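Quick one, T. Sequence first:
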Amino acid sequence: MNKFCYSLIVTVQLFFGLSINLNAQFKGLDKDLKLKAASKLKKTVEKQVKPLTLDYTVSKIYYNPLKSINTLSLDIKFFGNNPNKFSIGLSRIEFDLSINKKNASKFYNDKKIKIPKNGEFSFIEKADLKISVMGKAIFDAIRNKKAKYQIDGTYYLKTKIGTIPLKAKLAEKEM
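Structure tokens:
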């Protein structure tokens, strides 16, 4: 074999060997870049997006023992204000409802909620509670409007780059 062929073979082997190693390094680098970009985006959004004011009230209590003796339903009306100069789209919300410091229900909403810029907004969520899980004392407190409600959760802010989760802890209220 002449020197040219030998050097060509060595060059090709080196090229393929290096390209395989580089591809493996770029795959790891790609993941690192995505994680860093997501982290920076979240920090930027948290700095530039003013927090929404968000409050709630229990607007209706449903209990029909003829339909279901073990289920009590609540309509929870969320309302607030968006102080930002742009509208916000929530792609999903997840909340945990506690009553008298006891976990009562977890509820989700996958419907998109459009919040207008510099404006008021409201939406209603329904929470179904199992009386056998809550207990009679909490059931009586709800019916007598002496229950202390606490809602903690996450709302997901939809952006052009992706969805960003933001935690929310709403004030405890007696209703």
